[in-house]
Amino acid sequence: MKLIRDFIILLACLLAGKGIAALLPFAFPGSIIGLLLLFLLLNFQLIPLPWVHDGGLLILRHMALLFIPVAAGLLGYVDVLSQGLGLIIGAAFSGLVLILLVVGRLYQRMQP
């Protein structure tokens, strides 16, 4: 019964986020809005954490299964991905280096 309550709360936040996204004049993912809504509800303690904890853990435990359809969909674009593979790897690596440099610099500035 507890997992049903957890999933109902998570689903309600998702559907509310999708509803808000439909009202916006620009395109924005409803799932992100739902996640922000859940964060705000938990942050302001309108929903206690134990109400969604077990359902969230169950979803996180099986998250790898949720990425299988995405990976299978990418197989249809192997030719496009292989053409830009160098660019993709270069962008990922340069982004990683940039993030490490910025975080390192901020850490150094925050130390007394």
Write structural notes for this entry.
This protein is mainly α and 112 residues long. It has one domain (2-66, 84-110). It is 81% helix and 0% strand. It is built from 7 helices and no strands. The chain has helices at 2-23, 30-43, 50-61, 63-66, 68-74, 78-83, 85-110. α1 crosses α2 (30-43) and α1 crosses α3 (50-61). The mean pLDDT is 93.
Mean pLDDT: 93
Main sheet: strands, sense, barrel: none
Backbone CA Rg: 20 Å
Helix content class: over 70%
Gross morphology is: extended
Which range does the strand content fall in?
Answer: under 5%
Query: What ranges have pLDDT less than 50 throughout 5 or more consecutive residues?
Result: none
Q: What is the count of structural domains?
A: 1
Order of helices and strands: HHHHHHH
Number of helices: 7
Question: Count of DSSP E strands?
Answer: 0
Separation of the first and last Cα atoms: 51 Å
Q: Structural class of the helices, strands and pairings? A: mainly alpha
Membrane topology: Multi-pass membrane protein
Subcellular location: Cell membrane
Keywords: Cell membrane, Hydrolase, Membrane, Transmembrane, Transmembrane helix
GO molecular function, one term: hydrolase activity
Fold topology:
Blueprint (H helix, E strand, L loop, with lengths): L1 H22 L6 H14 L6 H12 L1 H4 L1 H7 L3 H6 L1 H26 L2
Helix pairs in contact: 1-2, 1-3
